[in-house]
């Protein structure tokens, strides 16, 4: 009987140890995914022809820890709220993952290109972007031409601690034309590489 009890205790101890390792691994995974880097799948067409729906990218979340976003940066932003620290970011990311698995998720993260930084005067005329009165040559956009006007009237001067973002597929993109300038604290990370599909792996710059 004594041997059976010891055996049962040993099995329970092993199960508890494995459960702890599993929970610890999941927590560490979410901390890294929420605060260091992520490899999300593109779920929208607003950045064509730079990245396409179904492709995967590498997002580095520490890029703006000591520097500000620059014109031309491709970023991931949260359209609902600002960053509030490691614990909050991890909780938000875990909840977003669970809601998505349950079919209750709402699309909160967007991929966009920074076209204006603090102090820039942004305007769009006949489908062309103007920054500080200068027409910008954009060889990365899907199609040059008329774009939807959005809710915010242009021209607009980008306030301090904010950026103006646009999608490369201007016809369908939800961006600063509708959301207004994006606060630095809404910026989650910089997109550096495309990592899927295999034949298109490489830098996006």
UniProtKB/TrEMBL annotation:
Domain of life, per lineage: Bacteria
The keyword Membrane is annotated on this UniProt entry: yes
Peptidase S26 domain segment(s): 16-196
Pfam families: Peptidase_S26 (PF10502)
Localization in the cell: Cell membrane; Membrane
Major localisation: membrane
Catalytic activity: Cleavage of hydrophobic, N-terminal signal or leader sequences from secreted and periplasmic proteins
Bilayer disposition of the protein: Single-pass type II membrane protein
Keywords: Hydrolase, Membrane, Protease, Transmembrane, Transmembrane helix
Known EC number: 3.4.21.89
A GO molecular function held by the record: signal peptidase activity
Transmembrane helix keyword on record: yes
Membrane-crossing residue ranges in chain numbering: 20-43
Family under the similarity heading: Belongs to the peptidase S26 family.
NCBIfam families: sigpep_I_bact
Name by which UniProt lists this protein: Signal peptidase I
Source organism of the structure: Clostridium mobile
């Amino acid at each position: 009987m004594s041997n059976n009890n010891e055996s049962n205790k040993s099995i329970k101890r092993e199960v508890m140890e494995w459960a702890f390792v599993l929970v610890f691994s999941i927590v560490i995974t979410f901390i890294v995914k929420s605060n260091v880097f992520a490899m999300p799948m593109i779920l929208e067409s607003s950045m064509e022809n730079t990245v396409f729906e179904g492709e995967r990218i590498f997002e580095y979340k520490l890029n703006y820890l000591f520097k500000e976003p620059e014109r031309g940066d491709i970023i991931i932003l949260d359209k609902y709220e600002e960053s509030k620290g490691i614990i909050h970011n991890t909780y938000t990311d875990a909840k977003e993952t669970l809601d998505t698995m349950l079919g209750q998720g709402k699309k909160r993260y967007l991929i966009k290109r920074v076209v204006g930084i603090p102090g820039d005067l942004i305007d769009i005329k006949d489908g062309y972007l103007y920054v500080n009165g200068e027409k910008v040559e954009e060889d990365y956009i899907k199609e040059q031409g008329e774009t939807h006007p959005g809710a915010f009237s242009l021209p607009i001067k980008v306030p301090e601690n904010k950026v103006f973002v646009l999608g490369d597929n201007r016809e369908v993109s939800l961006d600063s034309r509708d959301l207004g300038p994006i606060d630095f604290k809404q910026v989650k990370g910089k997109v550096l590489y495309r990592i899927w599909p295999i034949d298109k792996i490489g830098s996006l710059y």
